[in-house]
Amino acid sequence: MTYIPPETLQKEADKLLQELIPKKDLMKAKERTRLPSQAMPAQDPNVRITNLDEVALGYTPEQARVEAMRCTQCKKQPCIAGCPVGIDIPRFIKHIADGEFQESINVIKEQSILPAICGRVCPQEVQC
User: pLDDT digit string (tens) for 31-69?
Assistant: First the structure.
């Protein structure tokens, strides 16, 4: 895996987000699935060998919104059925896509008092 500086990932996500915002509510499922997955920003390998900090830095708001726009908001919602605590995943993802981060957190907290733990152990990549 090749290291890509977080600043580069941010610029790419910001450019893509500006293209997507005007049409985000009009996109069909096929278009959404063609959106590129956002690479998780990480510490520079030369820096991380000198510390014990978390390697993954987390998405910027723009990256999170682009990643959330990939959700097809499918009718069957296997992600909810597969969630051990029954979080309304499509609803919280829709809030992220809309830039409504606090609303997204509120949806998660309706079902889980430990959302950070869920985020670490949830196999969300295989739920769709």
Answer: 999 999 999 999 999 999 999 999 999 999 999 999 999
User: What torsion do the CA atoms of 110, 56, 124, 122 make, to the nearest 10 degrees?
Assistant: -60
Q: What are the structure tokens assigned to 42, written together?
A: 């990480």
As a whole number of angstroms, the distance between CA 35 and CA 97 comes to 13
Q: pTM for this structure?
A: 0.90
| Structure tokens that stand for 83 in this block | 């969630």
Distance in angstroms (rounded) separating the CA atoms of residues 70 and 13: 13
* Tokens linked to 49: 């060998």
Dihedral of the alpha carbons of 94, 103, 108, 89, in degrees to the nearest 10: -10
Neighbours of 102 (CB within 10 A): 7
Query: Phi-psi bin for 109: left (phi > 0), alpha (psi -120 to 50), beta?
Result: alpha
